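Appendix B, Record 12. Input sequence as logged:
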Amino acid sequence: MNHRANFYLQLVSPDHPVELVPADQDLIPAFKAFPDILMERYAAFALQALINRLHADGQIVPVSGFRTQQEQQKIWDDTVKQSGLAYTKKYVAIPGCSEHQTGLAIDLALNKEKIDFICPSFPNEGVCRQFQQLAPFYGFILRYPEGKEQVTKIGWEPWHFRYVGTPHAQIISAHNLTLEEYLLHTYISKACAR
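Logged structural output:
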């Protein structure tokens, strides 16, 4: 597997801290209208292409993209103070174990007057549903699907999308897998082929 594939398929979870981060020059705005919300360059290009295909610019907006360790720590600390530890553990990754620190994750919302930063609204209908359906063809997976909380150790987050590239996203989505399950299956398949 080449370096780029290793980067895109890195597993980040409470049990797997961030190992690979993008260089500053590889971070670009995910949406032109939101220059402070950054993503890794190829992930941002793919997201822009998907938004353009759906004519969804202005309907779907970014809430959070790349985060530094310090930003993730602040979000963790603030959420603990405001909502308690149980809620925080369900929806906020432990600092050092957040996909946002890779620049490959994006939280999206249906554009409305008030958007919750921790749990933005991304309903399974309309343009958001169309986004979910086309996302795998642009390299994105719904990273924390409903019913897979025991595997991901994160609550269901219909707003959190992760770039893994194609064809990986298509395979993961077609088989209703999490990234954890896909990587385990791929590892076992390779080991058995030896």
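The chain has a mean pLDDT of 93.
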